[in-house]
Design goal:
The chain is an all-alpha fold and about 475 residues long. The chain has 19 helices and no strands. Helix 6 packs antiparallel against helix 12, helix 15 runs antiparallel to helix 16 and helix 17 runs parallel beside helix 19.
């Protein structure tokens, strides 16, 4: 009995370490969005002249790096061992958070964010495998759903936590990671299991990862700088050319490389390709909505970070609720109807705000209905698109396809932020209403296109996994379940 009790406590502690570390990285996106205007004030006051375009790299540098390294880090975990890669990821993320908190200028902050993304990319793909190794076989489904629920919890807590911390000082948005990361690292070294390293094959194409970074960064740079430089200026044209050439080189290299970063041939599977196209379009719309709402509340309505966080909380809080309540609906009717309905609701939320938003704050009339509509739409669409893609894969490609899906979501975030800044410009205020309405309308159009993809997916009926070519690993099945959740 004593041995069983000690094992139970050990298991609970190991589970807590993994979930806390994953929560810390998932919380990052919404917290940093809320704090972005305060960062701009600090660096502008210091003589740095931080524009919205420059500040966007605090978000985009993280997302681009994460997207490029997610597959590489997961493969490194297979070769070296998930435990050391996961713990290294926590250490890197925590140290980089300290660098972000102490950053004397915007350039240092962006570099620290890149390093943060390196740490996050090491944690996310290895965390689920460690969690499954830590719990008994009969508890793995419950553990996987807990892992998936962490993202929803972080989304619900993000706006309010970001507002509270920013009210003290935006640097606390990053400093709060220090005690969490140190505790997770110390406890993790003591309790995490030591599963044997998996396959000993080569790492994915590292040059391909660099090409992804160059292509997405150049595209983002062109969109962000075009309002200031001009769309036909030499700098904008050069960046667009780099984006196209790098992107084309990446595609060609991926199709020919024996171990590509992303297995792009999977996109030829009709439902998988359609689901990823929907994820890309909806992710861009989601990123536009998220940052534009923060900027509107703080720069146009002149609300504090805390008031902004509280105002934006209903939308993210609805996402996990809607996702859970509609899980059986997806199983019964298929993914397509949920995606189609979610796209329509999200578009309706964007159109509502575009029609009613005024420089005179009226939260109940303007923002709250938009939050409720978009939050419900996200809950219906975002996870369902991922699930539709994963279910279209052969069983032995579930983990590989999931990595591609997650990278597409990060890329869409980067593009969405860049598109917003291209539309509203680097300096926003009370006179920016027209530009914001164009951005919201753009998000609505992208969401309607996602809804059309949902209609296309509906033609295939209820979801059904393609017959597997080989038996997948348990962690691959768990990854598919996680993404579907």
């Amino acid at each position: 009995m004593a041995t069983t009790l000690r094992f139970s406590k050990h298991t609970r502690t190991a589970t807590a370490v993994v979930l806390v570390a994953v929560f810390m990285t998932n919380l990052d996106l919404l917290i940093v969005n809320v704090a972005l205007p305060a960062m701009g004030e600090t660096f502008s006051a210091g003589g740095g002249g931080a524009s919205l375009g420059s500040l966007s790299w605090v978000l985009n540098a993280y997302a681009i790096t994460f997207a490029a390294l997610l597959v590489v880090a997961g493969r490194a975990g297979d070769r070296i061992g998930r435990r050391p890669v996961f713990l290294t990821g926590i250490a890197v993320f925590t140290l980089a958070s300290l660098g972000c908190a102490l950053a004397p200028n915007l350039e240092t902050l962006v570099v620290a964010r890149v390093i943060q993304a390196v740490g996050a990319s090491a944690q996310i793909p290895t965390s689920l495998a460690l969690l499954l190794a830590a719990v008994p076989a009969e508890r793995r489904t419950q553990a996987t759903r807990s892992w998936a629920a962490v993202g929803g919890l972080a989304a619900a807590a993000g706006p309010v936590a970001g507002g509270l911390l920013t009210e003290v000082d935006w640097r606390w948005v990053f400093a709060v990671n220090l005690p969490i990361g140190i505790a997770a690292l110390v406890a993790g070294r003591a309790v995490l299991p030591k599963p044997a390293a998996g396959e000993a094959g080569p790492l994915p194409d590292l040059l391909g990862a660099l090409l992804v970074v160059f292509s997405i960064a150049a595209l983002s740079g062109a969109l962000v700088q075009a309002p200031a430089w001009g769309w036909t200026s030499g700098g904008t044209v050069l960046l667009l050319a780099v984006a196209v050439v790098s992107g084309a080189a990446f595609v060609l290299r991926s199709l020919r490389h024996p171990h590509p970063l992303f297995e792009l041939d999977l996109l030829r599977l009709p439902r998988f390709g359609a689901a990823n196209a929907g994820s890309l379009l909806f992710g861009i719309a989601f990123a536009i909505m998220l940052l534009s709402n923060v900027l509107w509340c703080q720069e146009v309505w002149h609300w504090s970070a805390l008031r902004t966080g509280l105002a934006l909380a209903p939308g993210p809080a609805l996402v996990p609720v809607v996702t859970v309540l509609t899980a059986r609906t997806a199983q019964r009717f298929g993914h397509g109807p949920l995606v189609a309905a979610g796209g329509l609701l999200f578009a309706g939320g964007m159109v509502w705000f575009a029609c009613f938003a005024s420089v005179t704050p009226d939260y109940v009339r303007d923002l709250l209905p938009s939050q409720l509509l978009t939050g419900t739409g996200i809950g219906l669409s975002l996870g369902t698109l991922v699930a539709a893609g994963v279910h279209a894969l052969p069983g032995n490609r579930a983990a590989t396809g999931s990595a591609l899906v997650n990278s597409v979501r990060q890329i869409s975030t980067t593009v969405g932020v860049a598109v917003l800044i291209a539309v509203v410009g680097s300096h926003v205020g009370a006179t920016s209403g027209h530009d914001f309405r164009i951005a919201w309308s753009t998000a609505a159009v992208l969401s309607l296109a996602t809804s059309a993809i949902g209609v296309h997916l509906s033609r295939g009926g209820a979801p059904g996994r393609t017959a597997p070519a080989a038996s997948p690993k348990p962690e691959a099945d768990a990854q598919a379940l996680t993404d579907a959740s």
